[in-house]
Specification:
This protein has 4 helices and no strands. By secondary structure, it is mainly alpha-helical. The chain has one domain. Helix 2 runs antiparallel to helix 4 and helix 3 runs antiparallel to helix 4. The longest helix has 35 residues.
Length: 101
């Protein structure tokens, strides 16, 4: 904001000075939490993508369900990460427009 680097606590205090920016900031935080929570399904699906049971006739082949889980989780994470970025930029823009120099 205004060319200076702020800590997350200072950033939150600055955003809460502008009532118009608060809903966008809250949406951004919520989107970030959802995007970050998609890391667990992506990691699980990456670890268990290949069949590991040596007695299985499909040993070493990809599991379609795990591949689908990885694709859906990645897509969801990217969607919410882009929403987070968009809403955070809007909150900062509204906060900067409110400030009178």
């Amino acid at each position: 904001m205004d060319g200076q680097k702020l800590s997350s606590k200072e950033f939150k205090q600055e955003i809460y000075k502008s009532p118009e920016a608060i809903p966008y900031y809250q949406k951004a935080k919520r989107s970030k939490i959802i995007a970050n929570s998609m890391a667990a399904p992506i990691l699980v699906s990456a670890l268990f993508m290949k069949e590991r049971n040596i007695t299985s006739p499909n040993y070493g082949q990809n599991r379609p369900a795990m591949l689908l889980l990885a694709i859906v989780s990645s897509g969801t994470a990217l969607l919410f990460a882009s929403q987070d970025r968009k809403n955070m930029k809007t909150a900062v823009r509204l906060r900067n427009e409110m400030v009178v120099y």
